[in-house]
Specification:
Elements: H1 3-29, E1 39-45, E2 49-51, E3 54-56, E4 60-67, H2 71-100, H3 109-125, H4 130-191, H5 197-214, E5 217-221, E6 224-228, E7 234-237, E8 240-241, E9 244-248, E10 258-259, E11 262-263, H6 270-273, E12 275-279, E13 282-283, H7 290-325, E14 329-330, E15 336-342, E16 365-372, E17 378-386, H8 392-399, E18 405-409, E19 414-419, E20 424-430, H9 434-438, E21 444-445, E22 453-454, H10 456-460, E23 466-468, H11 477-483, H12 497-537, H13 541-575
Antiparallel strand pairs: 1-4, 2-3, 5-6, 6-7, 7-8, 9-12, 10-11, 12-13, 14-23, 15-19, 16-17, 16-20, 18-19, 21-22
Helix pairs in contact: 1-13, 2-4, 2-5, 2-7, 2-12, 3-4, 3-11, 4-5, 4-7, 5-7, 7-11, 7-12
């Protein structure tokens, strides 16, 4: 090998170790950069040559700067981050719902419900009492208010969750576009034989964030990463991508009933009423995982789920109080009743009148209409047959067959039943549910948590609160029957109203505790995987300082080597062949 060949060998070593030192410096500079993957210089022996029987090496080459990454571990962490994001979001929603049912002393739903029953019990003891009637109405108002506050609080949880998802959808679509763009850039760079370490760091950081938000998983192929949701919906394939669509429904309906002859739906259906997520037109609302999926699951299971449970409770309370109260007589006797509910078409079957209260509980049966004289004597009584397929006009015709009673339907669809002058009116047993559905002499109006209230007539005049079933003084049959509802097992699984609510709160607490446990276990596992990732791909200052010293010594040795070869060349060029001068 020539002296100049030796000089070139030193030069390549000098440059290689200089670049290696630069790589180490970059690692140290990014020791705290999230998602940064440490880099390692890869050296290889330069191609040598033979001269006769001898083989001469030509030095060292720095062939590439590689990312020190475990792709299998990267993918596992990405998937587990999606799982962790799901449970974190689910915990956030569930604890928000749980806090709504953490009742303050004497102001919680359970205490207010007990006070409501106690007020009816007090009225049954003194059925003529004005103070007792005032208490019944005030406790009922308080009960309605607490249920209304619970509904509003649960709706606010839904509103906040939908806002989060709305914001996340926008961010996720940006990430999806970034990943597709990075796929294209990486392919272009690596096609030229260059490394794309910076771009790959950005790519995997975006993939982990996307998985955390949506639970998406990815594969690596010749065109770059391909990203899918659990149902196989493609988000990214090479440089192609599909964005997530966001559609809002009839969010947080405030009206229940009839408006402009359109019947409002009272049922709670999350996707229909709140939002819908799509990919290429396909509904993925319940497919998405990660934080978005956890939030959606929490809104369905906890916010909407427990709103439905509380709705069942207040609906059952209202129905059972009403079915008894319709048979009662207040302290002020009435000769005319107007229904709270109204129909859109008096000739249509009652079962199709969705604007009625508890229309789903109408059955074949009959209700009794009673007429009393001024002395409280029953002068006329008739059982009015009702079939759910009957129209309101049909029922009116049957009532009008009585001698001292007149019934008709107003222009706005309300039923009016009146007795002749000098007589008062009341109702007896009702096996059909007609009176309750029409809101005739009911204590509550409405039939769901969205519209339950104390009857407007009773709020205006509490003397209309019924204590007895006849005009006789001291009759407490109705008040006593309503008070005894507190101990009747009218809810599912043969529970009283109080037992149902206590079970609801206990069930919620157990579910939230489980969510917290799973989230903590998942968090620990992700932490374990990230510790492994740090040991493989993270920057270790001690290791990098050792490498820096190693490369520095190699750089200094190469520099000394070049100096030595330079001296040899100088000797040959300037110190040889000077004899005879």
């Amino acid at each position: 090998m020539t002296l100049f060949g030796l000089l070139n060998m030193g030069r390549t070593s000098l440059l290689a170790h200089q670049r290696a030192m630069s790589t180490t410096g970059e690692n140290l500079a990014n020791v705290n950069t999230p998602g940064y993957v440490r880099r390692r210089p890869v050296f290889t022996e330069s191609f040598g040559y033979t001269d006769g029987r001898l083989y001469y090496g030509t030095g060292v080459d720095l062939v590439r700067i590689e990312r020190v990454a475990d792709r299998v571990l990267d993918r596992r962490i990405s998937m587990e981050k999606g799982e962790l994001g799901f449970w974190q979001a689910l915990e956030d929603v569930s604890t928000s719902v749980e806090s709504i049912f953490n009742e303050p002393q004497n102001l919680g739903l359970s205490d207010v419900l007990n006070s409501f029953w106690e007020a009816w019990q007090a009225l049954s003891v003194n059925p003529e009492g004005t103070t007792e009637r005032n208490q019944v109405v005030e406790k009922a108002k308080q009960l309605v208010e607490v249920f209304s506050q619970t509904r509003t609080s649960l709706e606010r949880v839904v509103e906040d969750g939908v806002q989060k998802i709305r914001d996340w959808v926008s961010h996720v679509n940006t990430i999806i576009k970034n990943i597709a763009g990075l796929n294209k850039k990486i392919k272009e760079v690596e096609r030229e034989g260059l490394t794309a370490n910076d771009l790959r760091n950005k790519l995997y950081k975006n993939l982990k964030e996307l998985s955390s938000l949506t639970g998406a998983y990815y594969y690596e192929g010749s065109d770059g990463v391909q990203v899918y949701l659990d149902n196989g919906a493609m988000l990214v394939s090479g440089s192609n991508y599909n964005e997530i669509g966001f559609e809002e429904g009839d969010f947080l309906r405030k009206e229940v009933g009839v408006l402009n002859d359109v019947v409002y739906n009272k049922n709670i259906e999350f996707e229909k009423n709140y939002l819908r997520l799509t990919v290429s037109g396909e509904d993925v609302t319940r497919v998405i995982k990660g934080k978005m999926g956890g939030t959606i699951n929490g809104l369905i299971t906890f916010a909407d789920g427990y709103l439905a449970k509380v709705d069942r409770l207040i609906s059952e309370i209202a129905y059972n109080v009403n079915r008894i109260h319709v048979t009662g007589v207040g302290a002020q006797k009435l000769s005319s009743f107007t229904s709270e509910a109204r129909v859109t078409n008096p000739d249509a079957p009652l079962k199709d009148q969705k604007s009625l209260f508890f229309e789903d509980r109408l059955v074949n049966g009959a209700f009794e209409v009673r007429v009393w004289d001024q002395d409280g004597n029953l002068v006329e009584s008739r059982m009015i047959d009702v079939d759910p397929y009957d129209s309101l006009n049909t029922v009116v015709d049957r009532i009008n067959k009585m001698d001292k009673v007149t019934a008709y339907v107003t222009q706005d669809g309300r039923l009016v039943v009146s007795s002749d002058a000098g007589y008062t009116l009341s109702f007896g047993s009702d096996s059909s549910g007609f009176l309750t559905s029409m809101g005739i002499n009911t204590f509550f109006t409405g039939d769901s948590i969205f519209d339950i209230d104390v009857s407007g007539a009773i709020k205006s005049n509490n003397m209309l609160v019924a204590a007895g079933s006849t005009p006789a003084l001291g009759d407490n049959a109705v008040a006593l029957a309503i008070a005894q509802l507190s101990s009747e097992k009218l809810m599912e699984n043969e529970r009283t109203f109080g037992e149902y609510y206590d079970n609801l709160v206990g069930e919620l607490g157990a579910k939230v505790a489980r969510v917290k446990d799973v989230k903590e276990d998942t968090d620990r596992f992700v932490g374990f995987l990230e510790d492994r990732w740090e040991s493989v791909s993270g920057v270790n200052i001690d290791e990098e300082m050792t490498n820096l010293m190693k490369f520095q010594r190699a750089f200094e040795a190469a520099a000394r080597y070049i100096t030595t070869v330079d001296e040899m060349i100088d000797r040959v060029v300037n110190g040889m062949g000077v004899v005879g001068r």
